[in-house]
Amino acid sequence: MNCLSILCKIGSLKKDRERVEIMIQPDDKIATPGQVVSFERNDITFTGKVIPSQCQRSVIVDLTIMDNLDEIDFEYDRTVVAHTNYRIIEE
To answer: Does residue 13 fall inside a structural domain?
Structure first.
């Protein structure tokens, strides 16, 4: 590996670290139906209401509470989010 390759790799890692710092920091709480959560997917921040499900390691989130859902062009109005990937923003 030459010096230019190493510098490019370091620059890429630095950008990745900066992007991670901007991302939503999940908390340790587990959301229950009716709570509003926020999460990121493909560098887009989503907000939605947790709906009842039998999921043990994740929640199903209804995204229709977002005003700009049509602008985002997300395929579905509900999605599954792992407990480790969201933050509760409203009880």
So the answer is: no
For the sheet containing 36-41, what is the strand order? 78-82, 58-62, 44-51, 36-41, 86-90
Domain membership flag for residue 19: no
- Is residue 1 situated within a structural domain? no
Three state DSSP letters for 9-75 = HHHHHHHHHHHHHHCCCCCCCCCCCCCEEEEEECCEEEEEEEECCCCCCEEEEEHHHCCCHHHHCCC
**34 in a structural domain:** yes
**Triad 55, 45, 74: Cα angle to 5°:** 75
Count how many domains the chain has: 1
Query: What's the domain range around 78?
Result: 24-90
| pLDDT tens digits, 27-62 | 788 999 999 999 999 889 999 999 999 999 999 999
Q: What is the pTM of this model?
A: 0.72
